[in-house]
Amino acid sequence: MKQAFIFPGQGSQFSGMGRELYESNQIARRMFEDANDILGFRISDIMFAGSQEELKQTKTTQPAVFLHSVIAYCTIIGVKPDMVAGHSLGEFSGLVANGTLGFENALRLVVIRANAMQKACELQPSTMAAIIGMADEQVENICQRIQIETDEVVVPANYNCPGQLIISGSVEGVKIACIRMKEGGAKRTMILEVGGAFHSPYMEPARDELEAAIEQVKFLIPSCPIIQNITGEAVNSPSEIKINLVNQMVNPVKWGKSIQTMIRDGAGIFTEIGPGRVLQGLVQKIDRTVAVSGIS
Known about the structure:
By secondary structure, the protein is an alpha/beta fold. It folds into two domains: 2-122 and 201-295, Malonyl-Coenzyme A Acyl Carrier Protein, domain 2 (3-Layer(aba) Sandwich), CATH 3.40.366.10; 126-191, Alpha-Beta Plaits. The chain has helices at residues 19-24, 26-39, 43-49, 52-55, 58-74, 90-97, 103-123, 136-149, 171-183, 204-214, 238-247, 255-264, 278-286, and strands spanning 2-7, 83-86, 126-132, 154-161, 164-170, 188-191, 226-227, 234-235, 267-273, 291-295. Strands 2-1-9-10 form a four-stranded parallel beta sheet, sandwiched between helices. It has a four-stranded antiparallel beta sheet with strand order 4-5-3-6. The protein has a two-stranded antiparallel sheet with strand order 7-8. α13 links the parallel β9 and β10 (291-295).
């Protein structure tokens, strides 16, 4: 039975994240201090004692979640994954775990990604919403009709698990979509507290900035495959991994398909590494027969 390591993305942050690691583990403490030096400010202080308002800013959230995940991974002794995956931002953590990227290069790319996404969010108001209890095809059709009938943008962003799909787009487009989803039979719709419309056309400027940065970094051959968001399939080619990371910015996260691919390829033990338990819950909703645990 194969071991899959999965890494969370933005939204899993909380005040106090990583503090226990810092206080109890010498490796973790050194990595946090290295990160503080690389970034030029003490992100560890924000992680350990910052307000929710500070932590939810995209430019802070992404490096914070990445650091917690990667440092937690680096304190594990004697267990290596047979495959890895990460939800959105979490792909960068997975690429450190499978040796494609070094810690410093990955952190620098995450910061560039986070800052670029923050800037893209500030260019035009946009948002996201969770649609619960509706078939993916119905959600897709409603989004398409809204875009045809109005000038608003609204697209599927995260295919998290059966019955849970996140949409992304203009503030008005998402608002209209939520009303129509409820009318169409969705059990629940919920506007999310996020900085903007991730995994949508609004992230095109950020995509271009990340692409330029990624082209300057050497990606190594991974020690095990990463199942990437944009395809939901296993990837081993460094050049293909780069392309998928860039295109992920403006395309939906196929998380449900990614987990199904890992199970198809022999994964029976899933370990979420990083803050929170969001991915553990999603895996259990996708397939209750696999073992699920977390390390934070």
